[in-house]
């Protein structure tokens, strides 16, 4: 059940679920009237003299949640006067939450002309098949043809004589938008594709599908590499003979990648500025490196 938590102090890095917008507005009005009548003082945010205090709401709907939880905990530890709410919901539009004031930061993979971007990482998009599938390399055009339904059998690509089972991702996910855009197949995904939301569910389906050589999917490269290291029976395909790995994602040789962006209002509050700076600090970059390919501040366009 959706709920919103109104509080003057909340636990660190609390993951919240949003109530409907009308309910939120009604509660905020009621809360403001209560504050006015009893004389409470809301927490303030300051960045003077190195002090940072106050709340920070970060909205997202993609696979970046574990990284953001780690960054939020470390940020709160560095700045004890701050507390972070993570508003994570696959049905929301994070940039819209920033525009309406329900969040201060949106984590996304697409730029928004109304908001200021800060790229903190690259996330590769891995193409995964079952380990028993003998296909190891495809061109970007072949991948586009698979996911748009132009190739029905792996034998068309030098693989086994079995039908191709396509696993797609929900339309609300950043990884799908980037995948379609990079391959030039926006709005052209095969209607027969099975849509799965979570990376771990996708991997389990690729491994468990019968016949096992049939499934193909795309997921966050960080998740795919972790699964391979753990001995899961999947193979990551190279694309145009470029292996999907951190160095090739970082320098752009591996073309299937998406930016991980923090989108904020043009005029940032002190706590938002402090969080962004933390992401570019050595401590923040170390955390990001555990999940994605970090992008230092010096590499910003």
Structural overview:
This protein is an alpha/beta fold. The chain contains ten helices and 13 strands. Helix 2 links the parallel strand 2 (53-60) and strand 3 (81-88). Helix 2 packs antiparallel against helix 10. The radius of gyration is 21 Å and the shape is elongated. The two termini are 41 Å apart.
Keywords, separated by commas or semicolons:
301 residues; alpha/beta; 10 helices; 13 strands; 33% helix; disordered N terminus
Portion in strands: 15-25%
- The separation of the N and C termini measures 41 Å
Mean pLDDT: 85
Poorly predicted segments: 1-12, 17-46
Give the helix/strand class. alpha/beta
The portion of residues assigned to helices is 25-40%
Number of DSSP E strands: 13
Q: What overall form do the CA principal axes indicate?
A: elongated
Tally the helices: what do you get? 10
Largest beta sheet, briefly? 11 strands, mixed
Tell me briefly what this model is.
This protein is 33% helix and 22% strand.
How would the blueprint of this fold be written?
Blueprint: E1 14-16, H1 21-38, E2 53-60, H2 65-78, E3 81-88, H3 94-99, E4 105-108, E5 116-130, E6 137-138, H4 140-147, E7 165-168, H5 174-183, E8 194-195, H6 199-208, E9 215-220, H7 221-229, E10 234-236, E11 238-239, H8 246-251, E12 257-264, H9 270-280, H10 282-289, E13 293-294
Parallel strand pairs: 1-3, 2-3, 2-4, 6-11, 7-8, 7-9
Antiparallel strand pairs: 4-12, 5-9, 5-10, 5-12, 5-13
């Amino acid at each position: 059940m959706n709920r919103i938590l109104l509080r003057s102090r909340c636990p660190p890095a609390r993951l919240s679920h949003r109530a409907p917008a009308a309910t939120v507005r009604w509660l905020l009005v009621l809360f403001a009237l209560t504050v006015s009548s009893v004389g409470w003082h809301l927490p303030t945010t300051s960045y003077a003299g190195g002090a940072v205090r106050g709340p920070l709401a970060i909205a997202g709907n993609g696979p970046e949640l574990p990284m953001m939880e780690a960054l939020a905990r470390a940020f709160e530890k560095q700045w004890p006067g701050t507390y972070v709410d993570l508003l994570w919901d696959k049905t929301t539009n994070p940039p819209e939450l920033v525009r309406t004031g329900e969040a201060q930061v949106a984590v996304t993979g697409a730029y928004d002309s109304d908001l200021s971007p800060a790229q903190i990482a690259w996330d590769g998009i891995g193409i995964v098949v079952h380990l028993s599938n003998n296909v190891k390399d495809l061109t970007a055009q072949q991948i586009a043809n698979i996911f748009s339904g132009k190739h029905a059998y792996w034998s068309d690509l030098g693989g086994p004589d079995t039908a191709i089972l396509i696993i797609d991702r929900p339309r609300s996910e950043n990884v799908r938008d980037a995948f379609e855009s990079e391959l030039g197949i926006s709005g052209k995904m095969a209607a027969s594709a099975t849509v799965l939301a979570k990376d771990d569910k996708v991997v389990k389906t690729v491994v468990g599908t019968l016949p096992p050589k049939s499934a193909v999917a795309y997921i966050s490269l960080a998740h795919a590499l972790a699964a391979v290291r753990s001995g899961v029976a999947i193979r990551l395909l190279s694309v145009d003979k470029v292996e999907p790995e951190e160095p090739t994602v970082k320098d752009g040789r591996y073309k299937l990648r998406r930016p991980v962006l923090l989108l904020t209002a043009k005029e940032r509050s002190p706590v938002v500025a402090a969080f962004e700076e933390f992401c570019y600090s050595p401590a923040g970059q170390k955390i990001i490196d555990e999940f994605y390919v970090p992008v230092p501040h010096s590499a910003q366009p």
